[in-house]
Specification:
The protein is 40% helix and 11% strand. With 368 residues, the protein is an alpha/beta fold. The protein has one domain (7-367): Nicotinate-nucleotide-dimethylbenzimidazole phosphoribosyltransferase (CobT), large domain (Rossmann fold, 3-Layer(aba) Sandwich), CATH 3.40.50. The protein has an 8-stranded mixed β-sheet. The longest helix is centred in the middle third of the chain and has 15 residues, at 201-215. The radius of gyration is 18 Å and the shape is globular. The chain starts with 6 loop residues before the first helix and ends with a helix.
């Protein structure tokens, strides 16, 4: 199936946030139906009070990644009775991803980079373990063969695929995104999104400043040094997978400001000698990230690499009657589980129209 490079842009279902003319030419290279993978991970950082709303309580956030994975694969959570919810009611963005993958006819691949609660799904293991709190300055423990395992996963997942969407479910991930970007020298203060309305920037800044002070990173610190010190398990796994996959096909990173951190990490890895084709990598997110006044994905990417195409699936729940979805318009949930990229893929391939996709999201939410 050949993608019409302008149809989704012309009808307003997909918007370009940055990347200029390169964003249209990247679309023109997308043919057929992509493979979709979700890298799941947990960290103790997500259990810091007030840091995340990707789960009703700090304890339940230990289950968030597993529940998202289970719902993607089985259509229902297995480890707990319900999918993750913001304390104020909105359901996990996994309902968006599930609807989009149904439209595409795609079965997701789950990559476990280190989860406290192991997903009850088939999964690819890459040698990571759950992350400690970044305030320790020693957040990650990675297997000796971690790089090789991640690159093998990336290569295997995209084998025979015309293009790929690589996404994440890692609660607390915008805080670790901030710490990794700052550790790499990117001024990301006040620019990362949040599952909290308005963005809990002061709390994030305090946590990240403590983490960076404990880590003691220097100008000689490598990308993996930064990830090990102040990152989460998803970030280096997805970065390495994307670099490998980009040698074989176009790759869309699924997420918002977390993917800015992943791109900054993989770009540094590439500069340090890891092979990859950076011109084959783009980012796709949701409208809520695109319009988020408390964050700045476009600004971050203009500093990291202004040539990277960044797209947003223009989802709008302002007219919905489905339980909790209208809260997305209040900024209580903006992105996660590759929701924006999965919707982007369904829309640009013509697998579904935007109104039909929203209708299916509503049906899935009402059936919960």
């Amino acid at each position: 199936m050949k993608v019409n490079p302008t149809a989704a842009l012309d009808n307003g279902s997909v918007h370009v946030l940055s990347g200029g003319k390169g964003a249209t030419s990247f679309l023109a290279r997308l043919e057929g139906i992509p493979v979709f993978a979700c890298v799941v991970a947990t960290t103790a950082t997500a259990e810091i009070e007030g840091i995340s709303a990707a789960g009703e309580t700090p304890e339940k956030r230990r289950y968030t990644a597993a529940l998202d994975a289970e719902f993607l694969v089985h259509g229902k959570p297995l480890s707990l009775p319900d999918i993750p919810r913001n304390p104020l009611g909105p359901p996990s963005p996994v309902v968006i991803t599930k609807a989009a993958l149904e439209a595409l006819g795609v079965t997701p691949v789950i990559v476990d980079a280190g989860c406290v609660v192991e997903p009850k799904t088939p999964r690819v293991l890459v040698g990571g373990v759950p992350g400690k709190s970044i305030v320790t300055g020693e957040a990650l423990t990675l297997a000796d063969d971690f790089v090789d395992r991640c690159r093998t996963a990336g290569r295997t997942i995209v084998e025979g695929a015309p293009w790929a969407v690589l996404s994440e479910s890692a609660p607390g991930g915008t805080t670790t995104a901030l710490s990794v970007m700052k550790g790499l020298g990117v001024d990301a203060t006040g620019k990362v999104s949040s599952s909290m309305p308005g963005g809990n920037h002061s709390l994030k800044d305090g946590v990240v400043n403590r983490a960076l002070a404990a880590a003691g990173l220097t100008g000689d610190s490598t990308a993996l040094d930064v990830a090990r010190s102040v990152g989460d398990p998803m970030q280096p796994a997805l970065a390495l997978m994307a670099l490998e996959a980009s040698l074989h096909c176009p790759v869309v990173l699924g997420g918002g400001t977390q993917m800015a951190a992943v791109y900054a990490l993989l770009k540094r890895m590439h500069e340090e000698g890891e092979s990859g084709e950076l011109s084959n990598i783009a980012i796709a997110t949701t409208r809520w990230v695109g319009i988020d006044k408390s964050a700045d994905l476009g600004g971050l990417m203009s500093v990291i690499d202004s040539t990277v195409p960044v797209y947003a699936a223009w989802l709008d729940f302002s007219q919905t009657t489905a339980p909790g979805l209208a809260h997305y318009e209040q900024g209580l949930v903006k992105e996660g589980v590759g929701a924006g990229a999965a919707a982007f893929a369904a829309l640009v391939t013509g697998s579904v129209t935007l109104p039909t996709l929203i209708n299916r999201i509503e049906e899935i939410t009402e059936d919960l």
